[in-house]
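Work Package 4 report. The design task specified in the project plan requires that, given a folded chain encoded as structure tokens, an amino acid be chosen for each position. We show below one input record used in the internal validation round.
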């Protein structure tokens, strides 16, 4: 069961905010924001503008965040990072294959 917090709105009424719901909303927005660039790269097959070092670090970070989310039972962190991991790995593989 999620912990609920009361947040004042203009000092008049209280609104019940579910932190887990906020986490899922934030996870959805940050995950969705990653997709347009990944789709553009996949469609164009052009990885020249992508730094291999940055993408390796980014993908490693996403893997570690996924593990963290799983270990601590944080659904929003796990959800966002597992979804982001799919196109991140595909783009990274494309980048690595273009180096050959």
């Amino acid at each position: 069961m999620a912990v609920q917090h009361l947040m004042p709105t203009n000092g008049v009424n209280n609104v019940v905010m579910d932190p887990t719901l906020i986490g899922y909303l934030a996870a959805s927005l940050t995950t969705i924001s990653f997709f347009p660039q990944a789709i553009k790269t996949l469609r164009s097959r052009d990885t020249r503008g992508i730094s291999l070092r940055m993408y390796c670090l980014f993908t490693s970070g996403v893997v570690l965040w996924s593990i963290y989310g799983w270990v601590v039972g944080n659904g929003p962190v796990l959800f966002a990072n597992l979804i982001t991991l799919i196109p991140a790995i595909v783009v990274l593989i494309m980048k690595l294959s273009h180096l050959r």
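The mean pLDDT is 85. Validation will be extended to a larger panel in the next phase.
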